Structures are given as C-alpha cells and as structure tokens.
Amino acid sequence: MSRRNSLSRAKVRVRRDSGTKLDYYNKIVNKTILAHQDPVTGLLAASNESDHSWVRDDVYSILAVWALALAYKKHADKDYGRAKAYELEQSVVKLMRGLLQAMILQIKKVERFKYTLDPRDSLHAKYSSKNCATVVGDLEWGHLQIDAVSLYLLCLAEMTASGLQIVYTLDEVLFIQNLIFYIENSYQIPDYGIWERGDKTNHGLPELNASSIGMAKAALQAMDELDLFGSRGSDASVIHVMSDTIYWCNTILTCMLPRESNSKETDAALLSIISYPGFALDDMELVNTTRHEILSKLQGRYGCCRFIRDGYKTAREDPSRLHYEPWELKIFENIECEWPLFWCYLVLDGLFYNNDDQVDAVSENLEKVLIKDAESVRLVPELYAVPAYKVEEEYKNPKSQDRVPLGKVPHMWGQSLYIISKLLRDNLIAPGELDPLNRRLAIQPKPDLVVQVAVLAENDDVQMKLAKDHNINVQTVNDVAPIQIYPAKVLAYIYSFLGKNERLGLTGRPETDIGYLSTSKLYTMNGQIFVFTAGFMDHKSFYLASDIDFTLDSFRTYLSFIERNWNNIPGRPTVVFVVTKEIYDAHEALNSQLISTIKKLYSGYINGARVQLGKLEDFIKTACLTSLTFIGTGEDGIESEKQVLKYLEEQNSTLTKASDLINRYKASLCDLEKSGTPNLLTTINLSQISLNNLNKNQNRSKKLGSIMGIVKRSRSIQYSECPRIIEKTKSALVNKNQEEANERQQSRSSIPNETYQKMNDDDLLNLLRENKSLHDEADILHYLYETKDLDWEIPSIHKNYFQGNKLRDLIINVYEKASLRKMWWLVRHSAGMLELTSDQLSKAVLTLIVRQKQISIGFPSMGNNSEISIKSPLPRDQIFSLIKQAWNKDISMMMITQELLIYLALFIGTEPQLFQGMIRLRLGLITQVMIGELERTLNCSVEDATDHLLNLSPFEMKTLLYMILSGKEMGATSIYSTRPSSSICDMDDNKKAEMERRHLRDELKHGYSVRNKPILLTAEENDNEDSNDSDLDKHGQWIRRRRLDGSLNRVSIGFYSKVWMALEKCQGIEIYGYILNQSLTREMTKEELKFALLVEDALNLIKEPEYRQLIVEACMLMIMLAQNEPRFYLNEIIVIDDIVIRANELFLQEQIKYNGDATLCCAIGKKCPSARGICEHFYDLAPSGRFGSMNYLFKALTQLLRIQENPDCIVC
C-alpha cells in the first residue's frame, strides 16, 4: 500500500514539474508568437509596424503552438491542462484556416497556374493579416515560392493526422486537391525559393531550387490518400497524389543535392528538407553528405550563413537597391550574416536522428547567441552581422571578429523551432508526436521488392502458339475477365475528373501522361478492377512504340525501373505485358528476344529486378490497390461516372474495330502480293489500325533502303561537314567530295520539283491515287506539304478516293503505312510533316537539365540553322518549337532530335557515368558522330551514311548512340569482330555492301562491340598500355577519339573549378577569341554551375571537335602548371590557341628531324585537309609518351609563359 502511494506521489510530482515547464513555455509562446496573431483572420503580422503576413513564416511560427498543445494534451491531469491544449489547438486551426481563406481568394490563379506554370499566375507569398487580401502586385514581388505552399500542405497533413479539424467543407477539399496540382510539377518549375530572391544576384531570375522541390515532395507524400475530415470523412474527402510526381521530385532532388541551385553551391535552407519538418530523403548517406556540405561551407560562430556570398544586411550591402551587380558579390564573401535559426534546425535534426553529441554541441553554441529580455526570456535573434568597422579584419581572418545582432528580435520562425527543440529535450513531447505520419522513418532499410508480372496473349491464336511452340502457358486478355485492361491514356482521362468543381471554376487535373509507377497499380471503381498498361506499349502515342525491339527493351527497363523506385508505396507493383500477334510474329524464333524475355521472367530475375510471373487474379491480394473514389462522388459525381463509363465503352469498341481492320489488312496484303493492286491501303481506315501490326515476312526483310526525290532534298544534315573518322588523305578525293557537296547545296532550294510544279492540284491527286510506290507518294505529299497547309481541303471530286478530307489525313495515311512496313526514314519524315511530339519529350529534357546538363539543338554555323540552347525545363510544345526553329525545314532531323533526347534521358537515368565530364549535350555534333561511325564502319560516303542513319529502327539508333557514349567501336578490327571469319574479298561491291549492312544491323540489334580504353586520357592518368597494341597503333585511332570527345563535349572531372583556380593567378584566359576575365572569380564561386557554363560557352565557339579537344588538353596542362608552379602568377591574358599552334610547330620540327609521317604533308609545307591548320598527324598523337601531344603542349606552354622548362620532365 505504501509503495502504491509513493508511486502515485511520484507521478503527481512529475506532472507538477511538467505543468510548471509547460506554463513557462506557454508564457514564451504567447509573448513571442500569439501576441502577433490577428483576432479576425488568425494570421501573424510580421511586426507591429506592418500587417504583412508571410505564408512560410506563419506556418513555421505556428508549429511551436501546435507542439505546445500536444504537450499539454499529453501531460494534462486536470481540466486546466485540457482546456489549455484546446485553446492552443484552436489558435493553430485559426491560422491555418486564415491562410486557406487567403489562398482560396486567389483560386483563379491556382486554376491558371496548373496549365501555364507562369510566375504571374502564382499564389502570393504574403497577405494582409487584417483581411487576408493581397498587399503587393503580381509583379512587385517574387511570389512564386513552391516551398511555402508545400510547407502549408505538409503541416496541414501532419496536423490533420494528429486529430485537428482544419478543413470543413468538400469545396475546401477540392481546393486542397488543386493545390496538389499546383505543386506536383515543382521539379520543373524555377521559382524564387525560400529567400524570395531566385538567382543570388537578386535580379528577379527564378531558378530550380532543391529546397523547394524537397518540400514539395514531402507535401505530396504526406497528403497522399489522406482524409482531410479525419475519422469522420468519406471517399469524397480523400486527397489523391500520383506516385510518379513524387518519383520525379525525388529524382530531381537527389540529382541536385547538395547543390541548392545553379547559382548556389549549397544553402542552409536544405536543413529543412533533410530533417524536420520535411524528411524528404530516404537515403541517409545523402542526408549526411548534404549536412556536411552545409556545415563545412556555411557554419560560423553565431550560426550558419544562408549561402556563400549572401549580401543580405551585410555592412557592404547597398540598402537603396534590392539587386546586386555580379562583380560586387565577391565583397560579401566571408562577411555573410550568420543566422542562429539554422542551429535550431540542427538541434532538431540531432533529436530526430538520435545524435546526442550533435544536440549537445549545437545547443551549447545556440544558448550563447540567444538574447535575454527584461524577464530573462531567451529570444532568438534574426541574424548576426559583422560591424562596418570590423569588415577589413574579417576579410583578413575569417570568423575572427565579434558580430552584432541585427533584424527582428525575436525572429518568430527561429523562436518557434527553438521552443520545439526545448519541448523535445525536456521530454514534454516525443518526435513521433510531431510526425504522426512517420515520415522520419523513410530512411529505414526496406525489404526486398518483388515485381509481379502477368504476361497475357492478345488472343487465342497467340496463346496457342506460345504453348505449342515454346511450352509457355499464358492467359488471354479475355481470360482475366472481369478484370479490365486499358492503355495508360485511359487512366489519364479518368484522373482528369479529380479535383473538378464547376462552382469554384476548377477544371480538375490536367490530362498529362501517366508514369510507370501509376500503371504498376491495380485500380478499383464501382466494384470493378482495372489494369493499365505502360505508355511505351501504346503504339498510337508515338512511332517509337512501332518498333517491336524497342518495346521489348523498354519492357525490361521498365521492370528494372519499378524495382528501384517503388519506395514507400504499399503493396507490390503489378505489371501486365500483352503479347500481340505482331510481337509474336516478329519474334517467334526459339532464341528471339520475346521468348528469351519470358524465360527470364520464369527464372525470377531480369535486368537486376526480382520478379514473380503468374496469373493476374492471383496477384490481387498482394498488389497495390488504389480506389478511384473521386469518380461518382461530389456535386458532379453522377455525371462524371456516366462520362467515364461512356469513354470506356468507346475504348472497347475501338479495340474491337481495330482487331477486325487488322485482319482485313492482312488478308488484303496477301491479295496485293498476288494481284499487284495499287494503293490498297487508301481503302482502309488506317487511323484505326495498330501501327505495330505487320506480317512476319515484311518484318524480317528490313533493309537499309534508299531515300529518293524531293523528300531527300528537304534534308539539311547531309550538307553539313560531318566528321571523318578515317581521314581521306588524297587531296583529289577531298576536292571531289567538296564539289559534290556544292552541287547538292545548289540543287537544294525551296522551289519544288519541276515535275510537280507544272501540275495542278487535280493532276497531283490523280497521280497520288495511281502510284504504286510509297516513295512517290511521299514525294507528292511533301510537295503538297510545302505548298499547302496541313488543313488544306481535298477537292470534293477526289474525296471518295481517300480516307479523310484534308492533307493531314493523307499524310497520316502514309505515316501509318510506313509504320506498318517499318520504313523508318518515311516514318520519321511523315511524322515530321505532322509535327508529332512524344509525350516523353518534356520529361526527357527535364531529366537532362536537372542533372546539370544543357542541351544544344542544330549544327554549329548552319546559317539560319544555328544552335539553339535549352537551359531550363520547358513544356513539350515549347521544346518542339525550338527544335523546329533549329532545324528549319529539315523535318526528319526534327524527329531524330526528339529521339536522341529520349535516349539520352534513358541513359543518364540508368548509367549516369556515361555522361561524366559532359556539361552540354550538342545534339547536332552527336548526330555527326553517329553518321561518321556509320561512314567508317560501312566505308561509304557521308550521304549514304546519312541514309543509313535515317533508316535505322529506334532500337538500333538507341544502341548506336549507346556505343558512342560508352566508347565502344563497331567492327573496327577483325580481331574483335563478331562477324563470320570467311573472306569476302571475292564478292562484288554490291554483295560486300549488303553484307556490311547486315553485320551492322546485327551489331546494333544485339549490342555487339568492343569496349575501347577510356576515350578521354589526360596527363594525370598513367599510361600502362603496350606500345605494340595494334588497336592504339592503328592510323586514325586518336583523331577519332578526339573527335568523339570533342563532339560529346567531354572534359575531365573537376575541369571547370580548376580553370577558376587558374584564372585567379592570371589576368584572363582566351579561348578562340573569347576572354574569360579574372573578374569572373569575383562574380561566381568555383563550384558554381554558372561559371562552368561560361567556360563551356567559350569552348563551344570552336566548330571542329578535334581542335576543341586539343584546346581542352592545353587547358589541362595550363591548370596543372598553375597548381604546381609557385611562379605561376601572370599579369597577362593566356591565349590557349597560341599554345596549340606552338605545339604543332614543335611537333613539325621534330618530324623533320626524325623523318616522321608529317614529312609527307605539313612538315614540308604541304597542308593537310585538317582543322585550323594543325597537322593531321598531330591530331592523331597519343597523349602520353616521348612523342605524345602532351609533351609538345607542355613545351609550348613553358615557352610562351617564359617559365624555365625542367629537362627531366615529360608529361605522361
């Protein structure tokens, strides 16, 4: 009995102590935060002098009030505690609803922004605390701040999960759903960021900010499947988020970290997303890396500065203007203001990740910089600055001078986080109570994932053949009924009803493409189960899906992608692959890709992914099941349900008609082969036929066909100077090629073919009806395309002979014929006339941009077709507009460019190491390299190589691009070749050419090749290669490597930051007439991406890739000398071109001395047909060795800089 009484007294004592502490913190909260809350709107005024209320500051400030309410609720032992908890909760609800009201008043902006992503349509960042109205104009502030809206949504989700009722009506639910649409594209929206400045020069230039993307990702994860009405809600009050938007945010975020943006190496604001409140990362290693980067670069004696060269409130800042001049950023370095706020973040970080040492160390430092008021209440000041009279001393000895507090005291944002940290340290609340959604546990290791795969046959015929010929038993699409299977575009249509509300003027989710994660779920609607196939299987979306090999390759990549990125999603991913008759006919052989893929699925592993092959109905219990509850609910529920059901019926009807038409087509195709009836396909509505259905004989007889007529003359690519991989040294041949190029250039004009020019429209249409050749048909349609509009109406007398009434319909007809027959050059050309764009185009550009790659489209110096750069994410239409502008009327290259962007994005996602040292991807030069490789491999002319390139299937072109990026070489030597060993010397030229083409296709089909040594060799690498290596001794090997690296814009890792360091030791560096002045080091930091892009701009002025690469090698030597030579401090501009020219002269002198190969050309005054007057043999030198290019460049460098050369030094 006495023991029980003692325990009871102990509990009372603990509660009494807790109550005392809680009352103390309640006093602080009321004095520092709630005293500023408006009694009407609930918003917090920034100060007593201003009624401006910032969304971000308000949310952060109210977090302390919420945390204190949770603490009172937890330790309440009498009515006072419960009443105090409720009182504080209502203050939180008041503020959150006030912000909701302010944003709802701008609902038209939310609706517009979903489609435009225009900063002028963004929600305002601050409102009046008196009436929730706006306080500044749309263009008078950097309002586009994705992180602020995302923080609001994140805290709304956490507070709702803790039991607070913040959202009251379904109209408000739908508005919140549209706020999800507002932030879900954050990964491609440059905004002004957490500091409202955008680019750190504060010129009003928005940029992609990692802190904004991270907070958006956190909000999307928190809101997904959350019922805003809590336990009292229904299907109508649930928020839905597409998993693929979370994936894209995560991908872009991890690629950017620890960098904040292009202008900021890192930013202390990233602490908010690697820990509380964001918890946006699931990789602890990346969390630690980012934290270390912040502490090593930004931490001082009074806190952390926001970012390097932050001039805000420093003694050297001019308060009369908001912006900075680029040159003056250097004066802010080492005197940036330090914010105690970030130590509050670090204390919370240690508390949530159980790092006691960090908590103790940072808390001790934090307590020293807090300011006590008259009542001894500790207040967090906004920042600490270096006084003006101590600035010079701080420059000389950074972090040595005492600073003074400036700004607001207390800083409500920092004060709130400080109070939360104290509540946690005093054990008044637990981390889990502040994170009821358990987002902090995202870094915990995950169990191995199994991808569930169901392979279905299109019909009974395919099912029977798979079972009979290959002992593979699968179900048909009809066998899995009542489960319904539709393409991904159907799911996009269904989701377009999400968030729709006519009374509020909200149109729902924009009907954009659906990603792989979303199509790996099962969906329920009205008691039925739906499965959606991935977008790459939709053969009508873009012509890439018409290539069966590409589809199968995409399927394997798809499974690997799902296995890697299925994070924090309940249930297993479920993937359906439908084997159509066309796919089976193209791959019915025993060792085909299709059969091999299915057998690998049976083995349980494919492309590194663990899979389980089985029946679809067996996967339902373990699959990720999502309810489409928004269909049939809300004010338009019945109407939306009717529209969806009608759409599904139309899709079923279309599929049935397409199957019948395909059978008709194949039967008619047999009649065509027997009777030779012309223009058969004009009698069949091909727009309803799958583009991926062609008989097996045609599919197996693909050849590199020729391209003739006006279609060919519309190309520009063949007239540009393509790089020769194997140089033709005979001047006569060079002159002959030049003459032919001039003739082709003269023949190319905007004037149509004379034959068609003399004919009227009726004659052309009659000719189109009667022709028997797709080549001729393409020529006629191209002429009409050049002279008419796509919407040109066919004269009524001809309408009965064609499907469709417009020119567009005729071109679609040819496009579909070419797709069915796998005539890839015509597919691309007709797609270009129709201006088709891939759904993946904008995502491809985004994927490259966020990995700090820039894109150039077009050829250098092509007259009107000069290169156009893409430096930021853009919508699909704008990207295509730039592609069209760059290539002018070369519509085939418009399509090739789209393909290359898609392939490059695929590679950078799966093998990012291929892109090391590349900051700008110049698609025109990459295309030239591809043509050059075909020219070298097939030993043909540039024109023929161009034909071969356009005739490659998408899968073959993707493989060719991979070989170039990875340094593989096609058919370079007989030693490594996969070709038959039998001699072909006795064959005639045509048979030899045909064999070369077949072997080329075999290499591209299966990816056979030989991996060379690393293409980019620098003086820093040890050269252990055997000097007798036949591969390296082969003529043209090193000039080829330099051309490849120059075209791919490859440089060594750390090249740009080293150029910055060298620039500090001289007045400037001149590259091809472009001067990089030393002043750039005052405008930008060495790790800043903007500086790297400036260096790249200088290098990109050089049109010849091999000469560009020599310039890079000379820069590398100059950098090495600057790093290791203490005398390298020059009061002059270093001209890199002079180093290369002098090195070439030294090389020629030694060639004469030793009677080298160059004595046949440049050494005796007979110039080579090579770039910039540099000897061809100098381009072909290996970098290292006694006679290596680095040795000559080093000698030239020391001579020009007048630095005594060490006779024992040979750069190796």
UniProtKB/TrEMBL annotation:
Membrane topology according to the record: Lipid-anchor
Give the GH15-like domain ranges: 21-924
Q: Name one GO molecular function term.
A: calmodulin binding
Q: Name one GO biological process term.
A: glycogen metabolic process
Q: What is its main location?
A: membrane
**Domain Phosphorylase b kinase regulatory subunit alpha/beta C-terminal span(s) in chain numbering:** 1025-1205
Q: Where is the composition biased (Polar residues)?
A: 747-756
Q: How is it modified after translation?
A: Although the final Cys may be farnesylated, the terminal tripeptide is probably not removed, and the C-terminus is not methylated.
Q: List lipidated residues, S-farnesyl cysteine.
A: 1209
What Gene Ontology cellular component terms go with this record?
phosphorylase kinase complex; plasma membrane
User: Could you tell me the keywords of this UniProt record?
Assistant: Calmodulin-binding, Carbohydrate metabolism, Cell membrane, Glycogen metabolism, Lipoprotein, Membrane, Phosphoprotein, Prenylation
Region listing for Disordered, in residue ranges: 736-756
Query: Where are stretches of biased composition, namely Basic and acidic residues?
Result: 737-746
The UniProt function text for this chain reads: Phosphorylase b kinase catalyzes the phosphorylation of serine in certain substrates, including troponin I. The alpha chain may bind calmodulin.
The name under which this protein is listed is Phosphorylase b kinase regulatory subunit
**Organism for this UniProt entry:** Brachionus plicatilis
